[in-house]
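Summary for the lay section of the report: proteins are chains of building blocks that fold into shapes. Here we show the chain for HicB-like antitoxin of toxin-antitoxin system domain-containing protein and then a coded description of the shape we predicted for it.
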Amino acid sequence: MAKTKTAKILQFRVIIEQDEDGLFVATCPAIPACHTQGDTYEEAEKNIKEVIKLCLEVAKDDEEYRASIDFGEEQTSRFIGIQEIFVPRPSFL
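The coded shape description reads as follows.
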């Protein structure tokens, strides 16, 4: 979801995960087909910012694509975090 901070700034939530090959994969769920990767976390973060900008450029001229983006104007919640939780493996697995 995007959240308007000022008239000129949008805020999007991004998920960055490390895959089995060690690459960092970044996705912006609010924007269809908005994903990228990088060799480092910082590179993935830089790349996803560029991809978001490119997607918004496409949306400027494509009304159907623009309508598919969740700008989250009514979003009032604040993201806190995601934590991996480890539990003992059950005997049936």
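Put simply, here is one thing we learned. The longest helix spans residues 41-61.
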